[in-house]
Write a structure and sequence with these properties.
single chain, Arc Repressor Mutant, subunit A, globular, 56% helix, 302 residues, 5-stranded parallel sheet, alpha/beta, 15 helices, Rossmann fold
Amino acid sequence: MTTEASSGNAGQKSQTDVLLVDDSAADLRVLMEMMNLKDLRISVALSGERGYQQAILLKPNLILMDVRMPGMDGIATCRQLKAHPAVRSIPVIFLTSANDLAERLEGFAAGAVDYIGKPFEVQEVLARVGVHLQRNLVEPVPVEQSTAALPGEASMDVRLVVQAQQVLSQTLANPPSLDRLARMVGTNRRRLNEAFQTYCGQPVFGWLREERLRQANSQVTGTQTPFSVLSDALGYSTPANFSKAFRLRFGCSPSEMRAQIQGAVAAEREPDSSLNDHSATTLDPGRDRQALRPQEALRAGP
């Protein structure tokens, strides 16, 4: 496992793929072992305050954060991250042992993109982490730039994944068959599935299912598009099937999530001076610029 934690200046490019924020050393150990399976570079933090500071310093590609922590909990930390222009675009996945709808809705309203339940299931964690990390591959960045440092076979597999993701993202409502998709990107179905399994943690249509739900989450929380229109655009046969898949994935219906988000937005129109005071006095991104290495964090305990 590459467990790099940047010790350079805050202006340097992050070498961290995933930032793990949890006050439980035991949970951190489990997550680190899982990240090892994907050879991901990680950093850890044992509190919301430290997680906020390290996110600004390291600018990771993804943050996995416990909801319930002493001091500044995950919800408050997520709100702070989404209010900071340098890190607001980093996806946050919440970790929780609770199955409480109100808590999940509050998390989505704070800006989280996903939830992972405790105790952790390896395949679920890797699949969800893979989906959100691989979103970077479909951004408009030249493929040559994203694969220049990779060995030949790995570089080709990444190219296949990038190209297939681009096709699927543009054809969510009516995607090609696996055989046709493989031909479109110049390979066969077996190699394409294996490439997705390696780099996304799941096969091609597993990634497609997650991508549809990721887009659904974004559209439900960020627009007023009718659910029947979303259902058609994302490739669901009926609005009822869309609603069922959404509830299974996010623990609430699309209408419940949208209502919660709208309520949160309305509440935020009222300035909260106490939050601003807390941010100014308690959270200092310039403090402790040396990132806490995972081994040191685990020795320190919760």
